[in-house]
Specification:
The structure is a homodimer of 120-residue chains. Chain A has 120 residues and is an alpha+beta fold. Helices cover 17% and strands 36% of the residues of chain A. Strand 3 of chain A pairs antiparallel with strand 1 of chain B, so a sheet runs across the interface.
């Protein structure tokens, strides 16, 4: 199947994703990807965790984003997500030291918030 | 579906996988996971790259392993792969500075070597 043939350009290292900047559609920087949360059994990336903050003693806020939400933009050299700041403020998030229970209810809630399918 | 319900224990951070030691069934250390190669479109981890060496000017050898080959062993605090050293020596590998073309042919070859399905 020619159309689905894959090349090295279809594959990316986890080390390149980690640290990549994330912007909104207006080009404002929202933060950067800190880590990927992977389903142990299937090897599927369930979330890319966007983090920002960590200054003025406020702690770091972390936003798990569904993989499908991230679109790479070569001009910005980072991911662009279809979220304005108000949308992001209302999104599921947690402080660095208090991760959520990553169960199906949480997965459905995160994916529904961003309007993408939860396939687990 | 109760049986497929997921919890935080079913999810692992890419940062925890990177650096995790890898052993063979006899308990010999083979190396450690350096990075994950992820399918950009689907978010599926296609390979966990095992690396070892990097001393005596020999360069670092890297072995892409299918995700399904890795089994975590809590006693060893690392992954155990069903490979003796002879099997690993014959496995698809590359030197650090010379990555392969990660295309479907390569994917099929790697997965066939380890006897697991290539699902792309």
């Amino acid at each position: 199947m020619q159309a689905s043939a894959t090349t090295s350009r279809d594959v990316i290292s986890s080390e390149r994703v980690e640290g990549t900047k994330v912007f909104n559609a207006a080009g404002d920087k929202l933060g950067s990807i800190d880590e990927l949360m992977i389903d142990k059994r299937s090897g599927q990336v369930r979330y890319a965790v966007l983090e920002f903050g960590g200054f003025l003693g406020m702690g770091t806020e972390r936003y798990p984003l569904p993989w499908d939400v991230l679109k790479y933009d070569t001009t910005l050299d980072g991911y662009v997500v279809p979220l304005d700041k108000a949308k992001l403020e209302g999104a599921p998030n947690y402080l660095d030291e208090r991760p959520p229970e990553y169960d199906d209810d949480y997965g459905r809630r995160v994916h529904r918030y961003y309007g993408v399918d939860y396939w687990m």
